[in-house]
Amino acid sequence: MHRYDLISCHDCGTLHRKRPLRPREKARCTRCRSVLYRGGTADLDRVVALTLATALVFLIAQFFPIVELEVNGYTSSATLLGAIVVLWSEQMQLVAAMVFLFTILFPAVELGALLYVALGLRAGAPPPGLNRVLRAVQAARRWGMTEVLMIGILITVIKMTSLARVLPQPGLYAFGALTLMLALVVAFDPKTLWNLADDLAPRPPPRLDYAALRASGAELLPCHACGLVTPAAPARARQRCARCAGALHRRRPDSVARTWALLIAAAILYIPANILPVMTTHSLFGTEDDTIMSGVVFFWNSGSQGMAAIIFVASVVVPMLKLAVLTLLAWSAQRRSRWRPLQRTLLYRMVEFIGRWSMLDIFVVTLTVALVRFQALAVITAGPGALAFGAVVVLTMLASMQFDPRLIWDHVDRGPLAPPGEKHV
Prior knowledge:
Helix content: 40-55%
Structural class: alpha+beta
Oligomer: single chain
Strand content: 5-15%
Distance between the termini: 29 Å
Radius of gyration: 24 Å
């Protein structure tokens, strides 16, 4: 068997033999039911066209106003970049930096890097720096939050309708289109481009006798960047992937300890995030502070119970759920528990999926602060609670990234090497 024909499950570490899939099919791990890969081939023309179109829409969304407010003859409009500048000028540089990274820089890096590699491969040769660029695509993809921003924009628009006349601008429609197009871009697996690069620049990979390796107890290490499976080097030797030069390790170093440190920091900051105001309104009638819960109450009392529920779930339930689930995972992994490994793996996937949605309230604050700038009537500024809450979101996301889900399965009996299961979708 060829080592390029093997794939390791990210969640439990089980090795599988690859086999061809038809389009719209998924290969799932036989052990933990995680999706290993999807069927279909990479159409470089389609990838280039989609990525280029998405990049153009991305630029339109950044430079055109999102909405315009009109009240008593005063008007105010804001772009996303303008909202970030307002936060920065109000001494909320860390919040401004988070919004810039998650909504502008990381999506731009993903689109630019993907377009660079696809154009190079389409020209018939792997472009310079392919390995670093594709790793940048994967890293940026984990932090891009355009879909969360879009929901934040819609919540802000609904909130502003009770204060002023809201006029949609080109940026609003551009962000809507961008959200849909980025969903198509994210569905493309960058690991496919590594396989195409191998076809253009063939390297004879060594044949491995997996029966002999398994009989001798030798260990195989997967590269979580490009997917290549490689025999482990002698103990304590640092090893890198032969294809993309990514670091290889049996388990993420100090995974549980780092997870605990990040969780404790997030739990401490979660208290001021809910007590301190996230926004302060200065108007002719005085000054009013708004916390996360007061925002939920505002929407509920104004008849928008659906919006109140969304904000409550994203800003209150999700952070508490992440803290609780990650605590359970770290505690059970530290105790080497064999308790319900499949259910714990499902909890881990859930935390990874919902982690970014807690940034919803930060995006609502960002846009509200930029739009309500009527000096003679009212001005809204960001409060310290926004900084604490943003830090909680980032720390819990880092905690889930530091936790190695394979620790859940290390003390569970492992089955034989097998082909993955398939599921039509």
